[in-house]
Amino acid sequence: MVKHLGIVGAGQLGTALAKLAILNSIEIHLYDINETILRRSIEQIKSDFRQAVQQKNLSSEQSLAALELLKTRTSLPDLGHCDIIIEAVVEDTRVKKDLFKHLDADNKIATILATTSPSMLVSSVGSAARYTERIIGFHFFGQAASSELVEIIPNINTPAGIINDAAALIRMIGKTSVIVKDIPGAIVERTSHIIYNEALCLSIDQTAGEGQIDNLVRQNMGLPLGPFQKMDVVGIDTVLATGESIYDQSNGDPRFRPPGIIRQMVEAGLTGQKNGKGFYRYGNPQ
Amino acid sequence: MTLFHGSNPLKTKSKIGTKKAKKNEPHSRSLTSDISHQPGPEKPIAVILGESPMVEVFAELCAAHGYRVAAALNNTPSGIKFSSPGIDMIREIPAQASVAIELTNLDLEHKKKNLERLSGAGSPSMPILSSSITVTATEQSLWIERRHRLLGIAAFPTLLAKPLMEVAPTIFSPKETVEAAAYFFQTLGIGTEIVQDRIGMVIPRILCRLVNEALFAVMEDHASPQDIDKAVQIGIGLPAGLIGWAERIGWSQICAVLDAIYNDTHEERYRAAPLLKHMALTGNWWNKQV
Question: A180, B222: Cβ pair inside 8 Å?
Fold first, then answer.
């Protein structure tokens, strides 16, 4: 049973997770080195709750009770009593490794340390820590972890008890978990990239056009978006970075090689919906 | 949102186009007269040859949309029960057939025999729509006379009654044959996408690649088959999952498509996972105790 959850990083993901947790009666210790970001995060949660109360999705009593569970922290040792600590800091290997080294030293041995990195191997992020068995990965999906799914990625020597506690936390915040070994891209990212790569190859060899492939994938496979539409939404630069990361971490396995055209597109400034040009043209860049 | 064709390096000028199914649309083109629904007691005849269960599924679909169906299964004795009336198991191809559909992906020798049977049958303009996911439509057209009648289709178990059918013309296909095929699928409530004549076509190629990777993941114990399906259903939005979908397609069909693409391209990513080959042979998961 998770009673105290630590979250390191009060950005978009950290804020979303904190909100979910307090709504499910878990006490949150939200840490950020930057007090301004921390204040902004709290304001965001309060604002979201006010809106939910106005829309009658939440009672004011529930809102107040949830906010009582939200504690802000600016010192890492203050997370020492947490059952699980989730890092949601910038996607930078060095920053994450340093953080885990500090957390490993400062926290009690029973604490589970979780990384949310979508592209790094858990074993790599946790390699600077002494007690690597307590380091696991959580893959959240969608904007602000909106997807119901969470991939739990145990380290190579994580005991079953830690995996069970991690799965219990995911159930407590109302999500569904799957257990996946520590492999590049786990299941969801890896599968997405196979769809992207195959779609790109089909377009390059002119088996079909991008619009046709999107149409066929939506209508005959039942996916909500075709692969070219999805790459535009995710950002072609993000697709390139993740695709190359999966390929590199798979030691150059040709099954995961991203087609060269994707890099050319990024270099040509075609990054998708956010700048108005990708595989499709958009009227109003985001 | 419009498809970007400015300086997009992926710009293609393929002869692409979607024809959405519009039921009951009148059609007056000469070749389509072979398959148009004429007033009167005589229904157009669809000849369907090939593998089970695709023949049964497609025969039921055609019968439900007003065709008389003359069907024959590869290597299977007659005696199949159909729920719809108007489906006959045949030995001889009816002379007055309006459209022929060949649905074989596995046994290419049998496919060749089926196409040879169809080659001399029907009118000179009767379209022959043949599955072309394990052998190109162009290669198949070289097996028959009056090769202008043959078009490739993405006939794959579970995809036959989907909203769109991929149609691959050959270098011998006149516009009229393509239009006749589009009209035929339209009468079944199915739209068409005209794609290039490549082994695997579009959806079978993507789908088989995904299933293959899922089988590698199971084989290497990355995740359980149940968790893989749950992950792709919730995380990607693939309603049927991958393992669950593959079981409905049939492992040997998936293996055949991958083998055909691998033989064609020699690309490592199409090499079938050992577990997939095992599933195609036995239909069962590996025994982990051994």
Answer: yes
Fold of the domain spanning A4-179: Rossmann fold (3.40.50)
Q: Distance (Å) from the C-alpha of residue A212 to the closest C-alpha of chain B? A: 7
Nearest-5° angle of CA B97, CA B101, CA B103?
Answer: 150
In CATH terms, the fold of domain B203-282 is: N-(1-d-carboxylethyl)-l-norvaline Dehydrogenase; domain 2 (1.10.1040)
pTM, full prediction: 0.90
Q: pLDDT for A44-95, tens place per residue?
A: 999 999 999 999 999 999 999 999 999 999 999 899 899 999 999 988 889 9
pLDDT band at B110 (very low <50, low <70, confident <90, very high): very high
Rounded to a whole number of angstroms, the distance from the CA of A229 to the nearest CA of chain B is 10
Q: Which residue in the block uniquely carries the two structure tokens 């239909």?
A: B283
CATH code, B18-194: 3.40.50.720
Residue A193 contacts residue A166 (beta carbons within 8 Å)? no
Cα gap A68→A82, rounded to integer Å? 17
Determine, for residues A255 and B213 on separate chains, whether the beta-carbon distance falls below 8 Å: yes
Please state, rounded to an integer, the average pLDDT across all residues of chain A. 93
Task: Please return the burial class of B156, using the count of CB atoms within 10 Å of its CB with bins 0-12, 13-18 and 19+.
Answer: buried
Ranges of CATH 3.40.50.720 domains, chain B? 18-194
B250-284 confidence digits (pLDDT tens): 999 999 999 999 999 999 999 999 999 999 999 88
Q: How far off is chain A from B11, nearest CA to CA, in Å? A: 8
Q: Do B9 and A265 touch (CB under 8 A)?
A: yes
Residue in A243, A48, A274, A275 with CA at minimum distance from that of residue A144: A48
Q: Please answer yes or no on whether A277 and B6 come within 8 Å at the CB atom.
A: yes
Chain B residues close to A205, C-beta within 8 Å: 196, 198
Q: Say yes or no for a CB contact (<8 Å) between B10 and A254.
A: no
